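Researcher: Re-running this chain for the archive, since the previous output was lost when a drive failed. Same request as before.
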Amino acid sequence: MIDLTLLSVPLRIDQIDFRVQSINKGGYATILAYKDARCDMQRLDDVVGPLGWQRQHTRDNHNCVVSLWDSEHQQWIEKEDVGTESNADSEKGLASDSFKRACFNWGIGRELYDYPVIQVKLHKDEFDPATFKATWNLKIKDWKWESVWDGKVLASLIATDPKRGERYRFNLGGKAYTIDQKIYFDQLLADGASLPFLEYMNSLSEEVRDDLHNSGEPKKIVALKKQCNGLEATAHKLLDAIADDITEQARKDDPHALHLATETFETGPYIKKALWERLEKDVQENLVEMKKGEAQ
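Model: Regenerated structure tokens:
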């Protein structure tokens, strides 16, 4: 059974293009985020397969019908929309635009309608003040765009010019976390790495931790919090088990105790402190003596 909800999964930032829509008298450029028709084709191929969809154009390419094959009812299901001509190639642009708009009806890239208004203050050499047109010095194609999604809601969008630094930043609802923090948080959750996860979460401010715990689609927040709490609980149990192993080995003067402790300490300062506080004083002293002996 084909999962058609996959059609509406937000497009990756590398699948989205950006262009200047207009420049006002104050020197601010309004930048438009848009998708290419090839992106629609790829999403359709990925979700329903190359033989599971088709397109038809009518009214001299003004209208496009995108149909998906319903294997259960053995019929094509159609969705149609109308396009507008482009300045470069009216006939080809019209066909492409009507196709992209029909794909919006299937949910592909629909989140682009919810993007914030992207306005960027331009430098004097990036636009002509007489015509309010961009000059060759405005190289948006070279900018690096980064995005973070909370389910199907855009949480953060950043544009960085390789020559002039950050040019645009958007954070939904004043989220305290950065893009890098959200990406690493999601990665640790996916990996199920309990000790690194506990270390990382305790390196963040309480505000950032709370926002990360509440990131995602509203209906999935409870499950996300449960996953986070479960991973942290697993980390504490693992620390208890490691402390028991170190204790047993250290009291036998087994050098593996020091190796295990050192390896665990390398996770970070919070884990090091948490493990050290789990060890009895005599075990701590044994580890110190082993360290001294190793240094000699």
